[in-house]
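Purpose: get a first structural picture of the assembly so the mutagenesis plan has something to point at.
Setup: two entries, given in the order below. No constraints added.
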Amino acid sequence: MNEDAPKPLSTEPYKGVRDFYPEDMFVQNYIFDTMRSVVEGFGYQEYGASILEPTELYRAKSSEEIVNEQTYSFKDRGDRDVTLRPEMTPTVARMVAHKRRLLVFPLRWYSIPNVFRYEQPQRGRLREHFQLNVDLFGADSIEADVEIIHIAHSLLKAFGATDTDFKIKINDRQSTLMGLREKNLTPQQEKLALQLLDKKSKLTQDEFKTEARKIFNDSSELEFKESDTVKTALADLRARGISNVIFDSSIVRGFDYYTGLVFEIFDTNPENRRSLMAGGRYDNLTANFGGEPVPAVGFGAGDVTMRNFLETRNLLPEWKPSTEICIATIGNTNVAANDLAQALRKNGLNVSVNVTDKKVGDQIKIADKQKIPFVLVLGEDEVKKKIFIIKELETGKETKCSSPEEIAKLIKK
Amino acid sequence: MNEDAPKPLSTEPYKGVRDFYPEDMFVQNYIFDTMRSVVEGFGYQEYGASILEPTELYRAKSSEEIVNEQTYSFKDRGDRDVTLRPEMTPTVARMVAHKRRLLVFPLRWYSIPNVFRYEQPQRGRLREHFQLNVDLFGADSIEADVEIIHIAHSLLKAFGATDTDFKIKINDRQSTLMGLREKNLTPQQEKLALQLLDKKSKLTQDEFKTEARKIFNDSSELEFKESDTVKTALADLRARGISNVIFDSSIVRGFDYYTGLVFEIFDTNPENRRSLMAGGRYDNLTANFGGEPVPAVGFGAGDVTMRNFLETRNLLPEWKPSTEICIATIGNTNVAANDLAQALRKNGLNVSVNVTDKKVGDQIKIADKQKIPFVLVLGEDEVKKKIFIIKELETGKETKCSSPEEIAKLIKK
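Result (structure tokens, whole complex):
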């Protein structure tokens, strides 16, 4: 090796993030497309924003402490404090507050942003992941809460999950907070109790009791009463045909901005204790930007946990390339091959044309390895006679066609 | 105001980045969808990667200095040097090198990543923008170069541009480098000459000559001969029906990794001097990761310049929401309204249902302001008789329907 030659660069991605090769991107697009289709079915419009946000946005009281401890924050070259968004809710609240007077409420919005957290990578937790965010602004009725939970339920059904694959747990955060208040805890104990409740699903009953005793000499289950809000929501959800929903007073969500009904959806497979989706009502968040607050309810669904859920249940589609036909060339048929390809594209086909000097057999082998389903060999004879033989690589079946329209019809079938 | 109340947070996004409200996202999605459709038409597969990359990736010789001066780089909490990718090419080269032995070449890949540069925001230049990247790996033929330029041309045509709206300039970077070498310049002068050529399109002829004289006492146009590669490429492009392509020896591209044919596409409107798309051949980039290099050719097209180009030519579609019908409710018809909405969704419609206690007239006004094209008012009578009146808000036209299928048929028409 040349002494001046630099050490080869590593081909690994940054720690805790993913490269999406076409097979991975295919799955990612399937998940995102399904999300889009379900959510738009309920009348929601897509929005977006930059991953860069002023750090100040996360200094608001309403944001969870743990978020601030785990953010990617730095100073830019102009000495501004910048943060890679750890979640989307502060951003969407900012955007709604910014155009509050121009927007027409109720507002149904969704986005599929990537979000960042600096933490130890592990199953279901990465440093960058995508998260569907669905929010309804400007309606404080229980019907709005119920619609949000209904969408979350519909999404899992659209992926092919059955009601026995997952369980929706709902609670009224206010009634749990009031229940804790009746125990006359110190503010610190109250905070610890909320944190303990938030991780209850990941603990055994004994572990939970031990932890509870540590905090306030009480090993009770910390169970509280069902509020009227919860009762109405349960009845409405059941009227919509959703039966895998239960009340659970330990559901409190990690974020302090939640003000009312909250919910989490869990995989019924006990090996996966992380929630698949979660959300609730947060009526005061926009008040951080001044002016009257806009009532809001929404939920988030991460792509990593969703993909794990779908993988373990065999609910992901098999990869195939978007390319439908490859034109292999023999002799000097390049111009004709490209003309034909253009005609096929006009008929809606995705077509690749040989750009190598490989033998035709090798060209076909490559198409086969790339799982392109059809191949067409174009020699000077085919060009002259305008007779094209379309070979289906999986079966070996050959069909004669004499026009681009005919080829498109064959392949689309 | 309460003295303890914190100062309201700003609703502005971070400097130099964009919020995408639904109307903006609609345009963005139109641009991305058109890109996807054209590029997949040529047989390309989508891939993706994180915006976070080890800073080391950009320390390679091959990357432009200016990129390093303008990156967002910082240390993570684990003391790793991280950079928000300023361009996608090093990432895709890394990914290809990582799986070189498993991938089947030639490889046709594309992505629409967001990339980051710390610079003064101005028209056509933001701190975050998206950039279509299209690359063909593993083919060193001129046909591969021609395919790449053909795709770039097809993309602008798919957006509705005509051949007189833009001009493709091509060059062989090697022949310009050799031409400069014949002038016996110092390495520093050579570098400055390349930088000057790279910005030639933004200067007047006089400005260019003045700058050239400053560098090496020579006010010549710095024009060099057309290489055989350029001649072949021009002939092949014309054979494909592409006539708005010319040779221009000043096209050298800012990135040092280009090794052969390079091109840029310019708006013919002289008010916009920034290139719309640019690319070329870079055969050695994967060698930075060790092993044999994989030949490569590709191009990039930024969303900000593209959007400006399409806007000034009135080529962007008018916004409309994805929601097709809104169900307004009177009385206690909520359960029935949601049942009907579900039936309509099964028939492929995007449907919102009232969640407020507003009067029906106000519900309709809201739908109208949100530009939802159809509304259906559901009272107890409609539920009982199963007769639904569908009102088209723009025309006021009303149609009686008696089933979800009938409603879907009416609206899809």
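Chain A touches chain B through 98 residues (CB under 8 Å).
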